[in-house]
From TrEMBL:
Enzyme Commission number, as recorded: 2.7.7.41
InterPro entries membership: PC_trans (IPR000374)
Membership in a protein family: Belongs to the CDS family.
Catalytic activity as recorded in UniProt: a 1,2-diacyl-sn-glycero-3-phosphate + CTP + H(+) = a CDP-1,2-diacyl-sn-glycerol + diphosphate
Keywords: Cell membrane, Lipid biosynthesis, Lipid metabolism, Membrane, Nucleotidyltransferase, Phospholipid biosynthesis, Phospholipid metabolism, Transferase, Transmembrane, Transmembrane helix
Pathway stated in the Swiss-Prot or TrEMBL entry: Lipid metabolism; Phospholipid metabolism; CDP-diacylglycerol biosynthesis; CDP-diacylglycerol from sn-glycerol 3-phosphate: step 3/3
Protein name, UniProt field: Phosphatidate cytidylyltransferase
Residues annotated as transmembrane: 6-39, 51-71, 83-100, 109-127, 133-154, 175-194, 200-220
Originating species: Lysinibacillus antri
GO biological process: CDP-diacylglycerol biosynthetic process
Gene Ontology MF term list: phosphatidate cytidylyltransferase activity
Pfam families for this protein: CTP_transf_1 (PF01148)
Subcellular location(s) of the protein: Cell membrane
Topology of this chain in the membrane: Multi-pass membrane protein
Amino acid sequence: MKQRIITAIIAAALFIPFVLIGKLPFTILVYIIAAVGIYELLRMKNISIRSIPGIIGLLTVFTMLLPEMYTTELIKLTSFSKLELLMIGVILLLIYSVVVKNHFTFDDVGFILISALYVGIGFYYLIETRNEGLHFIIFALLIVWTTDSGAYFIGRKLGKKKLWPEISPNKTVEGFIGGIITAVVFASIMQMVYPISDSWLALIVISIVASIFGQLGDLVESAIKRHYNVKDSGTILPGHGGILDRFDSLLFVLPLLHFLQFVS
């Protein structure tokens, strides 16, 4: 626990200033974080990020991360849209599988593409959410962090019924519900201090849905790790694991806030 707290304090001290600054420094930081994220996924599959498929996967993620404000410049520079560049990546990976005579298989192609979409889309919305306003990214972080803390402490104190033991043996139904309640309480406090929505009902509904999706994002990451028989996605954050272990919930919550047009 002590190591987790120390790591969390140091990570927050490094991350929060970039969140406050926003703009290009924050975008660069997100690119670095996303690069580590795709590296962690590829390593689970024993694919080197320095290999041809690994490089294509990394470039695919970088393309997807490009903020909306720069897409026009991308088209001017390359004559390709982001979707067209993604298709080029698909074609190159499929050609590579033929060149190496199926030592790199169709399944491997699918893994890299799903990994790139998972990391690229989630972190793209991290950039876009910050570009829409500091209060939106604070709200998203608040939901994720309070859900995580509420689920952990309430689950430890009151947890009896296992939520999904085949995926994450330590999570409980009581912790799941406790995380939602904690998120709603803190979101309501934020609403009173700095109104983020014109409607209290909308705020509460969004907070509940976002908290649920955040916990589902956590379970998805647990399922991936269990499938590939790894304890943590990485070791970059002592006591916490890897980048994906810390951002798994945000990768689900941030797109959701945009899809529901809460952030726009």
